[in-house]
Amino acid sequence: MVPHLTTALSGPINELEQRVLESMPAIERWFRLEWMEHTPTFYASVDLRNAGYKLAPVDTNLFPAGFNHLSEEVLPLAVQAAMAAIEKICPEAKNLLLVVQRRQPDSFYLSHLLTLVRIFTMAGLNVRLGTLDETVQEAQTLRLADGRSLQIEPVLRQRSRIGLKDFDPCTILLNDDLSAGIPDRLRALHEQYLLPPLHAGWPLRRKRHHQQAYEEVCKRFAKLLGMDPWLLVPATVAQQQVDLNQAQHVQALQAQVDVVLSRTRRKFKDYGIQENAFVAIKPDAASCSDCVLMVRDAKDLPEILARHGASTRLPQGPCDLIVQEGIPSYERIHDTVAEPVVCLMDRFVVGGYYRVHAGRQENEALNVPGARYVPLAFAQGAQLPRPGETPGVSAPNRFYMYGVVARLAMLAASYELEATDPEAEEL
Amino acid sequence: MVPHLTTALSGPINELEQRVLESMPAIERWFRLEWMEHTPTFYASVDLRNAGYKLAPVDTNLFPAGFNHLSEEVLPLAVQAAMAAIEKICPEAKNLLLVVQRRQPDSFYLSHLLTLVRIFTMAGLNVRLGTLDETVQEAQTLRLADGRSLQIEPVLRQRSRIGLKDFDPCTILLNDDLSAGIPDRLRALHEQYLLPPLHAGWPLRRKRHHQQAYEEVCKRFAKLLGMDPWLLVPATVAQQQVDLNQAQHVQALQAQVDVVLSRTRRKFKDYGIQENAFVAIKPDAASCSDCVLMVRDAKDLPEILARHGASTRLPQGPCDLIVQEGIPSYERIHDTVAEPVVCLMDRFVVGGYYRVHAGRQENEALNVPGARYVPLAFAQGAQLPRPGETPGVSAPNRFYMYGVVARLAMLAASYELEATDPEAEEL
């Protein structure tokens, strides 16, 4: 199933798809060489937006929470990728501690955790779940709606190691994005592998750094393919220490909105794209779609803030923001706006799913309450890309392109974490 | 689909299946550690025979020729495994030369080659096909029944490298088992990766070495699982320089047949197995199922030789033989005897298929003209093993066990090639 694109089949995305397919061996070799120099972030999920005229990641989640939406068919790929990852990081690994989100888990999240447990058990690890939530003092059994259950235990620190009661892991996989802070228990774990590293968590991570790295990666990738990197990169500027209650700050932000809108409109003109440009204003240091403001004209900003300011979860008081070219999603499943999410394990694309939202328009964020999920289900015999098919009509070809762009985002995350590593030595 | 087993569901194989499933993380970790020390043979296919009371590989093919029988669904696993293999062997690899069998290819073999080309292209290599056949002087285009075609070119030697016209590969993948001899062109290729190495070809390879290595691997694996290695290992003895035209040699061979039959009957008694023991006599240095003689009683051997000697392809004149415990195959697909074949790429199981033969009995070789092939097709959502299901009724669980035994055979091939490497330094 290729979701319906309202853009013409001859649009830039189809040219891009064709270019990507033709260059497959060169692209795979390029990634292979990149991964020799840069370490993947163990796992990730990447939200993409396909506007027909361009295709770009809008969120590179280093603590993915949607592996339950993967179809059963692709789980063997995830197991194989996990095997390859473990072999590289710590081949003698026996015990894996999976640290879960601190917020109260819903049934979907528990199902996601069960999927991760299955994957890592089959990859050859004893997996147990721990939480950093200090209110959890003893093991608790959580039940899913379908009757399955899992046990979550308090994470304990003993000297220089963390673990659970009677469970000493050599590898710790964080699925808590640390939004609630970095507990002291996690610091200075020099004897164990902590993946991803602490600075991948939101207390330290910044979207602007990811965006810089992504632009750098795309510039080189676009050179390889002889194409305009704009087809993959949303224009982005950062504005630090913005207090939305101060008129002066709002004016400065309006100026940035204008910068992004003008850049975008210039490109629209170059490409003959008949679209209304808009921007998304997002916090630089958090991953929440309901703190995103969409703005079509800088002069509307004060009014939008007045109208939506209270209902959004945009931080009150000075905060860092980014202003990013808005990418509409013209993919639809049964007339509902959809955006693909690609799941990665180590350097491999292991599958994906669509996020759909009946109550949202193509130029709005979909990752908000009410979203539903549809596995990127392929008809049998259709998983590998098929060079030679008409661009835009083959699901495997489309998904191959999505996988390439998601890997560009994952590679950018590697660059980003290298550049922001607080323990990196100065060169 | 689990082919029907005529043995009771409570038989030893189901106990083995249960033990294997329960020990999954330990097994995967054991393999992971083994593969740190031993290099997989790049690719292989392993023919298994499931007798209900035991399960054993009967042929570990290091030049597999049945990848066309894999279902489309598992090809992404093969691509991912190929990526991991290339990354380890030669990450900067760009061009791959695939050296095809010298014998006249049929449509099935061409389809197999096309599958390999697809897999390695998608793993990021430029793939071209070459032949060592000296009668091929220029590129020839071969057409398949379905209209697809491929081009095969003569392999050229230039100084210390081989390649094709205008194609200089860094890696050469042999799919020719070298039965027709090792051409000088392939010797002393110190600048290129030749996979598998020359001594994996039949001019140098011996089944008895593989069997020794397999017994060693199984002894250690059985210890890990606390089980009798006999459940996985067919009793085997070797007899060298046998001339079947000399009565004295035939008598010596009869004595070996007796040795294997007695060992097998003793085990049948221990386990209470109601079966008629038989042996398979095979050449030590070739992979052809139609040179296999099945013998139920040593005293029948002269008569069998007189009756079948001329019609089999057993070598005339002195040759090395092995006498191996015969493993009946009690799997059936639609009342036809079937045996599973597991395909491996690098250290990963990527899929499998069943070889079925309507004209053969459960105690005969199936890899002879007239065999048909059925992909090990799994219903959607059923590929990963499912701990907790009743042993013997779950296809993914059965296939997981097959994958484990096939990997034991692949690991044995690594041990074997290390032990027989003519260039290995003496320790």
Explain this structure.
Two copies of one chain form a homodimer. Chain A is of the alpha+beta class. Chain A folds into three domains: 1-62 and 205-234 and 328-421, no CATH class; 74-203, Glutamate-cysteine ligase, N-terminal domain (Rossmann fold); 236-326, no CATH class. In chain A, 31% of the residues lie in helices and 24% in strands. The first copy, chain A, is built from eight helices and 19 strands. Chain A has helices spanning 12-22, 24-37, 75-89, 107-122, 207-225, 247-271, 301-308, 395-419; strands spanning 4-5, 43-50, 55-61, 95-100, 126-131, 140-143, 149-154, 156-158, 161-163, 171-174, 193-195, 236-242, 279-283, 293-295, 319-325, 331-333, 336-345, 348-357, 372-375. In chain A, strands 1, 2, 3, 16, 17, 18 and 19 form a seven-stranded antiparallel beta sheet that branches. In chain A, a hairpin with a 4-residue loop joins strand 2 and strand 3 (55-61). In chain A, helix 1 crosses helix 8 and helix 5 packs across helix 8 (395-419). The longest helix of chain A has 25 residues, at 247-271. Chain A is globular, with a radius of gyration of 21 Å. Residues 4-10 and 378-382 of chain A have low confidence and may be disordered. Chains A and B meet through helix 2, helix 3 and helix 4 of A and helix 2, helix 3 and helix 4 of B. Chains A, B: GO terms for molecular function: glutamate-cysteine ligase activity. Chains A, B: This is Glutamate--cysteine ligase.
